[in-house]
Amino acid sequence: MTGAEARARWLDWLARERRAATNTVEAYGRDLRDFLGFLTGHLGEEPDTAALAGLRAADLRGFLAARAAEGVGTATLARQVAAIRSFLRYLGRTEGLPTPALGGLRGPRPKPPVPRALTPAQAREAAAQVGTVHDPARSEAPAEQAARDIALFTLLYGCGLRISEALALDVRDAPLPGSEAGLRVVGKGAKPRVVPVLPVVRQAIADYLALRPAAGPGEPLFRGARGGRLDPAVAQKAIRDYRRLAGLPEHATPHAMRHSFATHLLGGGGDLRSIQELLGHASLSTTQRYTVVDAAGLLATWRKAHPRAG
């Protein structure tokens, strides 16, 4: 079996058996393509499973050194190490191949980036206005598109969803006024969770659906111009156009609404374990990044307000 064939089987296993997120499968696929391409030059021919079984730790370190010389960042290198490790272990289980190189495989330890949140005022304004403020040089968006963008960003900020989680919802999932039921979300790794929904979120979604009176329960909740499920790039462009006109910082993105949700909950007294559940984080250490953001905000407030801080 060639390395390319083994890569295809592994990616299929990741998607079907491990239920890895689409973005993860795509990123790992690129990582393995880079790795196999390096080995082709390094070994003088396209590697097969026998060649992969014979790899040494020095071969893997050579790949990482080559990638670092190309300017690849620490976070990407760490992900590529994780991809290679998973791939070789998969071959060890399914093909019975020895994987001695794994014993010496050590990747860089990237420092997790600090989440960049908006201020409460900025987040509220973006959620309420993203669909109504447009570049004067361009024609106004239809009413449905404006209501859709407001509903989407109100949901992202009000419930702390990932953009992929929000865009995966169908009309039948829509949280509407008159109900107190939580919203069932399927997160990374196909793990479901239920999040509470604020009245303002329910109303924004109801206002949007009122412009789609014939929407069937199985249709996408957030649809694009052609009737299909809204592309994440369209949502990213909507907030990008808005932040340019409203003077918001460059980190005002769909994911910043999720960061803002968590940061503002923590600042309001929410406990980390509850925020972890709301965000769908597998590890509490991921949620703990928000304590750094909140601590930085407290320090900024102290420096601004305390008479002896200057």
UniProtKB/TrEMBL annotation:
Catalytic residues (positions): 162, 188, 255, 258, 281, 290
InterPro entries: CB, DNA_brk_join_enz, Integrase-like_cat_sf, Integrase_catalytic, Integrase_recombinase_N, Integrase_SAM-like_N, Tyrosine_recombinase_XerC/XerD, Tyrosine_recombinase_XerCD
Any single biological process term in GO: chromosome segregation
Keyword Nucleotidyltransferase: no
MF annotations from Gene Ontology: DNA binding; tyrosine-based site-specific recombinase activity
Location of the Core-binding (CB) domain: 1-92
Occurrences of domain Tyr recombinase (ranges): 113-303
Origin superkingdom: Bacteria
Pfam families for the chain: Phage_int_SAM_1, Phage_integrase
Localization annotation: Cytoplasm
Gene3D superfamilies per UniProt: 1.10.150.130, Intergrase catalytic core
Cellular component GO terms, alphabetical: cytoplasm
Keywords, comma-separated and alphabetical: Cell cycle, Cell division, Chromosome partition, Cytoplasm, DNA integration, DNA recombination, DNA-binding
Record family assignment: Belongs to the 'phage' integrase family. XerC subfamily.
Function text: Site-specific tyrosine recombinase, which acts by catalyzing the cutting and rejoining of the recombining DNA molecules. The XerC-XerD complex is essential to convert dimers of the bacterial chromosome into monomers to permit their segregation at cell division. It also contributes to the segregational stability of plasmids.
Subunit structure: Forms a cyclic heterotetrameric complex composed of two molecules of XerC and two molecules of XerD.
Name of the protein in question: Tyrosine recombinase XerC
